[in-house]
Amino acid sequence: MNAAELAAQGLEVIVALAAAPLFLGWVNQCRAWLANRTAPSVWLPYRNIVKLFGKDAVLAQDASPLFRVAPYVVFSTMLVAAGIIPSMSTRLPLELAADAIALVGLFATARVFMSLAALDVGTAFGSLGARREMMVGFLAEPALLMVIFLAAHIASTTALPAISAHLTAQSFALYPSLAFAAVAFTLVLLAENARIPVDNPATHLELTMIHEAMLLEYSARHLALLEWAAALRLFNYACIGFALFVPWGMAGGAVGPIGLALAVPVLAAKLTVAGAGLALIETVSAKLRVMRAPEFLASAFLFAVLGLLVHLLLGAQA
Amino acid sequence: MSPVHATHLPWDLQLLNACAALLLLLSFAMLSQRRIVTLVDLLAVQGALLTTATVLLAWRSAQPHLYVSACLTLALKVLFLPWLLHRLIRRLNVYWDSEPLINPAGTLLLGLLIVVFAFGLAQPVSELASTTTRSAIGIAVAVILLAFLMMITRRKAMSQVVGFLSMENGLFFGAMSATYGMPMVVELGVALDVLVAVLVLGVFFFQIREQFDSLDLHHLESLKEKP
After folding, report:
1. What's chain A's Rg over C-alpha atoms?
2. Any idea what the Cα angle at residue A27 is, between residues A293 and A286, rounded to 5°?
3. Is residue B28 within 8 angstroms of chain A, CB to CB?
4. What is the average pLDDT value for chain A, to the nearest integer?
5. Which of A214, A235, A201, A264 is nearest to A79 (CA)?
6. Given pLDDT bands bounded at 50, 70 and 90, which one contains residue A112?
7. How far is CA A59 from the centre of its chain?
8. pLDDT for A20-72, tens place per residue?
């Protein structure tokens, strides 16, 4: 571990913190453009967060300490996750702390705290949202794990930075298995981040909301932290996707200031394209009924397992 | 650990493998598709993929007779049979299959188990085969079994016929990847067989509908006529 790697680690976390609301704003802007609406500014999520931090928090009468702690837990898990996921450098000192499977566990921790906090106050919407969130989570997690197993099998390691370093080093080849995994990952990303086919992030319509239903009781700094955490989660998922499927352009090997300086615009370019793509997917697809969400996630699982099986079958010939 | 092997493959084998993987994916798409019109389109795409794979294999193995069978596949399975089926759909006015016997998510998971089984089944066979595409035998077996599953879980005669044709595609792909295709006589025979089968089944459709006012095959399960 040297100073350059530590600097890369610090830069990654800071960039994630700073750029996550921007990425969310960009996705929202693209969505508005695609729907022929006047787009809100890309800086809107920042203003929202700043505004919320300036307000006085209101807590429900029956709220337990868990309710107060949950936003901090959720936010810090997302922050730790941002430290583990290689977005600009494949040499991260934190990679020893947790591998890709532990990363899935981190996301699960955030989800459990979120749901418990929503159940804690005892409102109808909160428990409805929490139960739906757990349903989506337990269906999406196996698919995500399968995607990670496939990548881990290709690279013979479960450490995410090492996986992307391995994938970057390879010469270009057609990987049907990785293509399947990419589709599966996209579906999981949509489901886990409460994007359109599963949940609509822009609605507060009682019967359809999942993520927003859990936030209803929160206000001020708690809400600000949770919204920031949601933006960070989207950013983290996007970065996992880049690390697994488009790992080129990251600073690898001996990390130098030049490599890092080059990695920043590459990441920005990837995020710009991914945000536009995400907005496009959301615009062309309709929100599924909650009952159909298992089918949606079953197909994600199917793609992931098919990718793994095809890799085991076709990759076995040398 | 050794890095992944696919990088060492020449590009045409990589393309072949991609075709095989897409064939498997298409089988799943057919398994979950309830619109019969789309089902027939998927069958045409499957045929097109099979044609591509055959041409690639013919080029790779320098077997000229595979070009002929590629042309045959193109003419029969991409152009003629889908056209015929579309015409039948229009004339019989069946656009949707009724609810399948197992729910869609369940069917997909069952399909996954079948793929695992098929890959295990094909393992010893592909060790014996000497072709460069031997690892795709597992996929061919999976396509056959998935088409079989589709025939079992569907009620309408039309989707069962599509399942039957998809099974034939799987068999063809299997023969291709195991032994670079069957002898020309057999291939021509099978092609003719399929053609005649579909034509006869087309006549059957009208008979079934005339008898029962529907193409739902569960009417055929009772032995006696209803009083």
Report:
1. 19
2. 30
3. yes
4. 84
5. A235
6. very high
7. 28
8. 999 989 998 998 998 888 888 889 889 989 998 888 888 888 888 888 899 99
Tell me the pLDDT tens digit for each residue of B13-24. Answer: 888 888 888 898
Closest in A166, A314, A317 to B21, CB measured:
A314
Check CB contact under 8 Å for A302 and B136: no
- CA end-to-end span of chain B: 72
CB neighbour list of residue B123: distance below 8 Å, 6 or more residues apart: B138
CB contact under 8 A, B104 and A295: yes
The whole-angstrom separation of Cα A18 and Cα A304 is: 32
pLDDT tops 70 at residue B198: yes
CB contact under 8 A, B4 and A174: no
Quick check: B6 and A173 CB within 8 A? Answer: yes
Contact A175 B6 (CB under 8 A): yes
The C-alpha of A313 sits at a distance from chain B's nearest C-alpha, in angstroms, of 6
Q: What is the pLDDT of residues B143-185, one digit of tens each?
A: 999 999 988 888 777 888 888 889 988 988 888 888 777 777 8
The chain A residue lying nearest B1, using CA atoms, is A156
pTM score: 0.83
Tell me the HSE value of A105 on the side-chain side, using a 13 A CA sphere: 7
Give A156's contacts in chain B (Cβ within 8 Å): 1
Closest CA to A162 of A102, A103, A85: A85
Contact at CB, B135 and A180, closer than 8 angstroms: no
